[in-house]
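[job 0412] stage=fold_complex status=start
inputs:
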Amino acid sequence: MVFIARGIIWYGLYLFLILLPIGTALVSNPDRTAPSFLTSLGIAAGFIGFSLMALEFSLISRIESAAEPFGEDSLQLFHNIMGVTALGFILAHPTLLIISEYPANCWLNPFSACANTATITAFLSVFVLILLIVTSLFRKRLGIKYELWYVIHGLFALFVVFAALVHIFTLGRFTSAPIMKAVWILYAALVLTLLSWHKIYSPLRNWRRKWKVVENKAERGGAHTLALEPLGHKGFEFMPGQFAWLKTGRTPFGIGQHPISISSSSEDPPDGRVAFTIKDLGDWSGKDVPAIETGDTIWVDGPHGVFSIDRLQAMGYILVAGGVGITPLYSICQTMADREDIRPVVMFYGGRDLDSLTFREELEALKNRMNLEIIHVLSAPGDDWTGERGYVNAELMMRYLPKQYHRFNFLICGPKPLMDAMDEALPDLGVPRESVLTERFDMG
Amino acid sequence: MHHVIVKIFAAGLAILLVVAAVAFAAIIAA
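[job 0412] stage=fold_complex status=done
writing structure:
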């Protein structure tokens, strides 16, 4: 209930801030000569688009109290969708204004004779926003490296917001009233505060909380487990299933943070040791991580996330993992074993073949310490495989689910095809949405 | 399942904002 109340408060604040510019314009109405309906609609679209764009920063700032009620992967998805929505409103802004009364030549051609600071900043802001959205939606197809994209994404977003503010102020139409001026200044301050929090305050806090690598172990399935110990601090407490942002390098500042699930038990002895398991999925995980040596320093920002049995109590759990999605579920199983939790757990674990299943032997060993049943589902097994073949689906799950599965909670973590398959399977099985927790791999 | 809820939620918000923009325009232009 606390999370629901907190979620409502944060969402209410978000909605309030989006509507603040049009609400204030409505009250102050600086333009005494009433503009046409289309012009007014164009102005409203611009205000809403700007607010949405500015508030995009709030969704990815990792402010814990705001992220906890929703989960960071949900906020990330919401950020992605609202970015495209903001583009829609911002494109509607010049379209409606040009249709109604504004000269297209001045606004669409920054080199025309009638172009001025207001028209040029408007043009550049929209142009860069289009670039920002295109490079985000098609990053992989365009062959842009994640680290480079991360930098240009932030710079583009900052440029869009401040170019739009210059446009608003130089136009002057909605800055003549002091209260409207205050609204735009509030937005500029909000964006700068959120950026400072994310890029300066959080790394500074982590600067004093170094972690040392005590083991780098190669696992099945092209994964590596890094065991870390806190240096000069107590580490952190976490819920099984949570993740943290890891960064290698000399400082916690700058680019190159990666969201990685914790793969150790949350009931570990109080030396603060935590393990993270990372699958080779790119430059950092494939080249840098295997080269990390014992004694190296790592920067950890966490724990984060709401994907945990501690957030969703039930009489038993159905765990569905695909590939390295096993990592948080392995943490959950270890924690349950350490807690001597005897609630039943049924795990569906999908992978290519038996050799690719990370923690296969470790999970088998856990069966002796907890009430765990594991069903391996292999998409490309050897000829001698007698278990389940193909992919996890409703029909397959039905054969193994316990009779009381409606009273169990479902935790699912894996690549997009698995998540999509579960979107179809779980309603077919009559599983209510509130009984399901999911964790997406790709937060980028 | 979460991401389905997020998508529904985002779509609802987008519709709400369009309604708010139209209401703003109707009041200002009146």
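[job 0412] summary: The mean pLDDT of chain B is 89.
[job 0412] exit 0
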